[in-house]
Protein backbone atom coordinates (compact mmCIF):
# COMPACT_ATOMS: atom_id res chain seq x y z
CA UNK A 1 0.00 0.00 0.00
CA UNK A 2 2.87 2.37 0.79
CA UNK A 3 4.66 1.67 -2.52
CA UNK A 4 1.42 2.21 -4.43
CA UNK A 5 1.84 5.94 -3.80
CA UNK A 6 4.90 5.95 -6.08
CA UNK A 7 3.84 3.46 -8.77
CA UNK A 8 1.75 4.74 -11.64
CA UNK A 9 0.53 1.42 -12.98
CA UNK A 10 0.60 -2.27 -12.13
CA UNK A 11 0.50 -5.30 -14.43
CA UNK A 12 -0.67 -8.61 -12.97
CA UNK A 13 -0.65 -11.95 -14.76
CA UNK A 14 -3.59 -13.84 -13.23
CA UNK A 15 -7.14 -13.22 -12.04
CA UNK A 16 -6.14 -14.18 -8.50
CA UNK A 17 -3.47 -11.47 -8.42
CA UNK A 18 -5.89 -8.96 -9.91
CA UNK A 19 -8.44 -9.72 -7.18
CA UNK A 20 -5.72 -9.47 -4.53
CA UNK A 21 -4.30 -6.08 -5.54
CA UNK A 22 -7.73 -4.51 -6.16
CA UNK A 23 -9.35 -6.18 -3.15
CA UNK A 24 -6.90 -6.89 -0.33
CA UNK A 25 -4.55 -4.02 -1.21
CA UNK A 26 -7.34 -1.69 -2.25
CA UNK A 27 -5.67 -0.40 -5.43
CA UNK A 28 -7.81 1.45 -7.92
CA UNK A 29 -8.73 -0.70 -10.93
CA UNK A 30 -7.62 2.21 -13.09
CA UNK A 31 -4.05 1.54 -11.94
CA UNK A 32 -4.09 -2.20 -12.70
CA UNK A 33 -3.91 -4.11 -15.99
CA UNK A 34 -4.38 -7.87 -16.33
CA UNK A 35 -2.06 -9.26 -19.02
CA UNK A 36 -1.55 -13.00 -19.17
CA UNK A 37 1.84 -14.56 -19.80
CA UNK A 38 2.01 -15.78 -23.39
CA UNK A 39 2.81 -19.20 -24.83
CA UNK A 40 5.02 -19.67 -27.88
CA UNK A 41 2.86 -21.47 -30.42
CA UNK A 42 5.90 -22.25 -32.57
CA UNK A 43 7.72 -23.90 -29.67
CA UNK A 44 4.84 -26.06 -28.48
CA UNK A 45 2.67 -26.68 -31.55
CA UNK A 46 2.26 -30.36 -32.39
CA UNK A 47 -0.76 -30.49 -34.73
CA UNK A 48 -0.15 -33.86 -36.38
CA UNK A 49 0.32 -35.95 -33.26
CA UNK A 50 -0.39 -39.67 -33.43
CA UNK A 51 -1.31 -41.93 -30.48
CA UNK A 52 1.62 -43.38 -28.60
CA UNK A 53 2.04 -46.92 -27.36
CA UNK A 54 1.83 -47.13 -24.45
CA UNK A 55 -0.75 -44.39 -24.06
CA UNK A 56 1.09 -41.73 -22.06
CA UNK A 57 -0.48 -39.49 -19.44
CA UNK A 58 1.92 -36.79 -18.29
CA UNK A 59 2.04 -34.17 -15.58
CA UNK A 60 4.63 -31.40 -15.26
CA UNK A 61 5.22 -29.41 -12.09
CA UNK A 62 7.26 -29.29 -8.94
CA UNK A 63 6.91 -32.23 -6.57
CA UNK A 64 5.03 -30.40 -3.84
CA UNK A 65 1.99 -31.04 -1.66
CA UNK A 66 0.07 -28.25 -3.39
CA UNK A 67 0.38 -30.19 -6.67
CA UNK A 68 -1.15 -33.27 -4.98
CA UNK A 69 0.46 -35.80 -7.33
CA UNK A 70 -0.71 -38.60 -5.04
CA UNK A 71 -4.24 -37.96 -6.22
CA UNK A 72 -3.37 -38.71 -9.85
CA UNK A 73 -1.30 -41.72 -8.81
CA UNK A 74 -4.25 -43.16 -6.88
CA UNK A 75 -6.62 -42.34 -9.75
CA UNK A 76 -4.32 -43.97 -12.30
CA UNK A 77 -4.07 -47.12 -10.18
CA UNK A 78 -7.86 -47.27 -9.81
CA UNK A 79 -8.41 -46.80 -13.55
CA UNK A 80 -5.78 -49.45 -14.32
CA UNK A 81 -7.29 -51.97 -11.85
CA UNK A 82 -10.92 -51.52 -12.89
CA UNK A 83 -10.75 -50.92 -16.67
CA UNK A 84 -8.96 -53.49 -18.86
CA UNK A 85 -9.05 -51.08 -21.83
CA UNK A 86 -6.92 -48.66 -19.79
CA UNK A 87 -4.06 -51.09 -19.28
CA UNK A 88 -2.11 -49.79 -22.26
CA UNK A 89 -1.58 -46.52 -20.35
CA UNK A 90 1.35 -45.20 -18.35
CA UNK A 91 1.74 -42.17 -16.09
CA UNK A 92 4.89 -40.02 -16.23
CA UNK A 93 5.47 -37.41 -13.51
CA UNK A 94 7.92 -34.69 -14.54
CA UNK A 95 9.39 -32.36 -11.96
CA UNK A 96 11.54 -32.19 -8.84
CA UNK A 97 10.86 -30.71 -5.44
CA UNK A 98 10.44 -31.36 -1.71
CA UNK A 99 8.00 -34.25 -2.22
CA UNK A 100 10.03 -36.08 -4.87
CA UNK A 101 11.52 -38.76 -2.62
CA UNK A 102 8.21 -39.24 -0.80
CA UNK A 103 6.37 -39.77 -4.10
CA UNK A 104 8.99 -42.30 -5.25
CA UNK A 105 8.51 -44.22 -1.99
CA UNK A 106 4.73 -44.00 -2.36
CA UNK A 107 4.88 -45.55 -5.83
CA UNK A 108 7.23 -48.31 -4.66
CA UNK A 109 4.82 -49.17 -1.82
CA UNK A 110 1.84 -49.74 -4.14
CA UNK A 111 0.46 -53.29 -3.96
CA UNK A 112 1.50 -54.06 -7.54
CA UNK A 113 3.95 -52.70 -10.07
CA UNK A 114 2.21 -50.07 -12.18
CA UNK A 115 3.63 -48.19 -15.19
CA UNK A 116 4.23 -44.97 -13.24
CA UNK A 117 7.53 -43.14 -13.68
CA UNK A 118 9.09 -40.29 -11.71
CA UNK A 119 11.19 -38.46 -14.31
CA UNK A 120 12.53 -35.65 -12.11
CA UNK A 121 13.59 -32.28 -13.47
CA UNK A 122 13.51 -31.95 -17.27
CA UNK A 123 14.38 -28.97 -19.45
CA UNK A 124 12.80 -30.44 -22.60
CA UNK A 125 9.18 -29.60 -21.77
CA UNK A 126 7.96 -29.14 -25.39
CA UNK A 127 9.41 -32.57 -26.21
CA UNK A 128 7.81 -34.13 -23.13
CA UNK A 129 4.41 -32.80 -24.19
CA UNK A 130 4.93 -33.90 -27.79
CA UNK A 131 5.62 -37.43 -26.54
CA UNK A 132 2.40 -37.50 -24.48
CA UNK A 133 -1.24 -38.30 -25.18
CA UNK A 134 -2.84 -36.35 -22.33
CA UNK A 135 -1.87 -33.85 -19.64
CA UNK A 136 -3.08 -34.19 -16.03
CA UNK A 137 -3.02 -31.60 -13.23
CA UNK A 138 -4.22 -32.55 -9.73
CA UNK A 139 -3.36 -29.45 -7.70
CA UNK A 140 -5.25 -28.26 -4.64
CA UNK A 141 -4.48 -24.66 -5.66
CA UNK A 142 -3.29 -22.87 -8.81
CA UNK A 143 -3.32 -19.25 -9.96
CA UNK A 144 -2.82 -19.57 -13.70
CA UNK A 145 -0.70 -22.64 -14.51
CA UNK A 146 1.22 -22.20 -17.75
CA UNK A 147 1.42 -25.98 -18.14
CA UNK A 148 -2.28 -26.06 -19.06
CA UNK A 149 -1.77 -23.44 -21.76
CA UNK A 150 1.39 -25.14 -23.04
CA UNK A 151 -0.47 -28.45 -23.23
CA UNK A 152 -3.34 -26.93 -25.17
CA UNK A 153 -0.82 -25.26 -27.49
CA UNK A 154 0.62 -28.76 -28.03
CA UNK A 155 -2.82 -30.08 -29.07
CA UNK A 156 -3.03 -32.21 -25.93
CA UNK A 157 -6.25 -33.02 -24.04
CA UNK A 158 -6.15 -31.72 -20.46
CA UNK A 159 -7.59 -33.06 -17.20
CA UNK A 160 -7.35 -30.67 -14.27
CA UNK A 161 -8.85 -29.92 -10.89
CA UNK A 162 -11.08 -26.87 -10.82
CA UNK A 163 -9.23 -24.85 -8.19
CA UNK A 164 -7.95 -21.31 -7.72
CA UNK A 165 -7.91 -19.26 -10.89
CA UNK A 166 -8.10 -22.14 -13.38
CA UNK A 167 -11.82 -21.73 -14.02
CA UNK A 168 -11.26 -18.07 -14.92
CA UNK A 169 -9.31 -18.79 -18.09
CA UNK A 170 -10.42 -22.24 -19.29
CA UNK A 171 -13.79 -23.97 -19.28
CA UNK A 172 -15.25 -27.40 -19.94
CA UNK A 173 -15.25 -26.44 -23.61
CA UNK A 174 -11.46 -26.93 -23.55
CA UNK A 175 -10.61 -29.23 -20.61
CA UNK A 176 -11.98 -31.97 -18.39
CA UNK A 177 -12.61 -30.57 -14.90
CA UNK A 178 -12.58 -32.84 -11.84
CA UNK A 179 -13.26 -31.90 -8.21
CA UNK A 180 -10.15 -31.54 -6.09
CA UNK A 181 -9.15 -34.51 -3.89
CA UNK A 182 -11.65 -36.80 -5.67
CA UNK A 183 -9.88 -40.00 -6.74
CA UNK A 184 -13.03 -41.58 -8.18
CA UNK A 185 -13.76 -38.61 -10.43
CA UNK A 186 -10.17 -38.39 -11.63
CA UNK A 187 -10.08 -42.12 -12.44
CA UNK A 188 -13.39 -41.94 -14.35
CA UNK A 189 -12.16 -38.95 -16.32
CA UNK A 190 -8.87 -40.64 -17.23
CA UNK A 191 -10.85 -43.57 -18.67
CA UNK A 192 -13.33 -41.28 -20.46
CA UNK A 193 -10.55 -39.28 -22.07
CA UNK A 194 -8.88 -42.51 -23.19
CA UNK A 195 -12.00 -43.97 -24.79
CA UNK A 196 -14.07 -41.05 -26.18
CA UNK A 197 -12.23 -39.92 -29.29
CA UNK A 198 -14.79 -37.46 -30.73
CA UNK A 199 -15.15 -35.52 -27.49
CA UNK A 200 -11.39 -35.51 -27.01
CA UNK A 201 -10.68 -34.07 -30.45
CA UNK A 202 -13.26 -31.31 -30.05
CA UNK A 203 -11.81 -30.14 -26.76
CA UNK A 204 -8.29 -30.26 -28.18
CA UNK A 205 -9.32 -28.02 -31.08
CA UNK A 206 -11.13 -25.62 -28.73
CA UNK A 207 -8.11 -25.47 -26.43
CA UNK A 208 -5.65 -24.67 -29.19
CA UNK A 209 -7.95 -21.97 -30.57
CA UNK A 210 -8.27 -20.37 -27.13
CA UNK A 211 -4.49 -20.24 -26.63
CA UNK A 212 -3.95 -18.81 -30.10
CA UNK A 213 -6.53 -16.07 -29.66
CA UNK A 214 -5.96 -15.04 -26.01
CA UNK A 215 -2.83 -16.58 -24.49
CA UNK A 216 -0.18 -16.64 -27.21
CA UNK A 217 3.02 -14.58 -27.16
CA UNK A 218 1.57 -12.43 -29.95
CA UNK A 219 -1.54 -11.68 -27.91
CA UNK A 220 0.58 -10.80 -24.86
CA UNK A 221 2.88 -8.49 -26.83
CA UNK A 222 -0.08 -6.62 -28.37
CA UNK A 223 -1.46 -5.90 -24.91
CA UNK A 224 1.87 -4.67 -23.56
CA UNK A 225 2.42 -2.47 -26.61
CA UNK A 226 -1.03 -0.93 -26.16
CA UNK A 227 -0.20 -0.21 -22.52
CA UNK A 228 3.18 1.33 -23.40
CA UNK A 229 1.57 3.61 -26.00
CA UNK A 230 -0.79 4.95 -23.33
CA UNK A 231 2.23 5.73 -21.13
CA UNK A 232 4.08 7.72 -23.80
Task: Write a structural description.
By secondary structure, this protein is α/β, with parallel strands linked by helices. Helices cover 44% and strands 15% of the residues. It is built from ten helices and eight strands. It has a six-stranded parallel β-sheet, sandwiched between helices. A two-stranded parallel ribbon has the order 1-2. Strand 6, helix 6 and strand 7 form a beta-alpha-beta unit. Helix 3 crosses helix 8 (183-195) and helix 6 (146-153) packs across helix 9. The protein starts with 9 loop residues before the first strand and ends with a helix.
Major sheet:
6 strands, parallel
Proportion of strand residues: 5-15%
User: SSE string, helix = H, strand = E?
Assistant: EHEHEHEHEHEHEHEHHH
In terms of structural class, how would the helical and strand content be classed? Answer: alpha/beta
What is the overall number of helices?
A: 10
Given as residue ranges, the uncertain stretches (5+ residues, pLDDT < 50) are none
Beta strands, count: 8
- Our measurement of the CA-to-CA distance between the termini, rounded to an integer number of angstroms, reads 25 Å
Order of the strands making up the biggest sheet = 5-4-3-6-7-8
